[in-house]
Here is the input.
Amino acid sequence: MRRFEHRTSRRRAGFIPAAAFGCAVVIFAAASSATAAGTGTPTAAPDASPIPKLLQSQASAARLRAALDQIVAAGAPAAVAYVRDGSRRWTAAAGVADIQSKRTARVTDVWRVASVTKLIAAHLALALADEGRLDLDAPLSAYNGHLPQKLGRIRVRALLNHTSRIAEYLDHRVLGVTARGMAASARRRPDIDALVNRALMRPLVDDPMAEHQYANTNYVLLEHIIQQAAGVSFEALVRGRLIEPLDLKRVGFTSADGSIPLLHLNSYIRDDTRVGGPFSSRNKLLDVTTHPFFRGADGGLYASAAEIARLLDRVFQRHARDGAPLGRLTRTLHSDHDGFYRYGLGVMAVELTCKRTIYGHEGQDLGGSTLAFANRDNSRQLVLGITLSTDNNEPLSRAIERLRSIVFCS
Here is the structure.
C-alpha cells in the first residue's frame, strides 16, 4: 500500500448499464491575481499560527529548486512542481520526460493525475446535488435497480467517502505483486466491466477497525450515478462545467487505448531484483505510461501542473464556506486504516509533521505520483508530479516529503 492511497487503486456492463538529468525549467513570478479563498470526526479547528511568506526571494526559489532536484536524484526520471503563495507562484521541472529519447521535462508537460480525478468527481456530484438532480443520501438502488441487495442499501455518500466497504476491482489479482507482473498487466486489455462486476459480487470488506476503506470501485459506481443524474457522460460533464469555462488547454482524458494525446511525462516503476525483491532495481525502469486502467471518475484525467492548480482553485472557490476548509467536502472526515490521512467527500486531509493540515488529493498511477494540495484557506498550494512509483523507495518518499514540508511548514 502507498503512503496515502492503496497500491491497488483503479462502461460498464452487468450491474453498470534512474535517468539522465535534463536541463531544468523554472518560472518564478507574481500570479496575475490572487485566488479567493454522518460518522467520522468533525473538521479540526483552524491552524493556529500564520505561515511565513514563502516566495519572497530568489533564496526561497533556490530552496524549492534544490528540493525538486533531490526528487530526481532519488531516482525519479522527472519531477514537475507548481507552488503558489498568495499571489506569487513558482513553477519548475527537472529531469527527462522520457528515458529513451532523453527529452527534457517541461513545466507545460501533462501526465496522468490518477485519483486527483476523484476530487473533481466529488465536486461535480455536489453541484448536481445542489441542483436537485442527485441525492447524496439516497440508496444506490434508487439509481441502479440491478445491484445486489447488499449494495442497493448503500447510500451514495458512502461512495464519495469510501465507507461503502465495496471491494477493490483492481487488486493484486489484476495488477500483480511484482514490477514485471504490473508491466504485463499494462499491456493487456482486460474487460474492465467484468472486473468491476466481479468486485461487486464479493463480500463487503469487514474490518471493524477501519470504517474508511479506499476502493476505486466506489468511484466507478459514482460515475454511473453522476452520468444518470446529469444526462451526459462524465467526460462531457467535466468538459462542459470545468475545462471549457476555465479555458483549460492541457486537461483531458486518456484515449481509448490509454495513451495521452499531448506532450507528456512518461511514468515508470523500478524493475524487480532477486536480492531486493519487487520494485527494487536501481538501474532498470519499466515504462507503464500507457495502460487500460483508470479511465473515468476513478482516475482518468491527465493535466499539467498549472491547470491542476486552477481546478483546485475552482473547488475551493465553490466549497470553502460553512466553517470548514472545503465546506461539505470536509465537514466529516474518516481516518484511513493506517492513519496517514483523513477522508471527506473526495478530499484527503493530511496532517503534516509541523501539525498543519493540508487538503486536496493524491494520485497514484501504475507508475508515478501526483500531489495536489492546499492549506486551509487555499492561500498556499502545491501541485507535484513525479514519474516514478514510490513503491519500495524510501529515498524518493523522503525527498517528496521534504519538498512538501518546505511548501507548507516553512
Notes: The two ends are 29 Å apart (CA to CA).
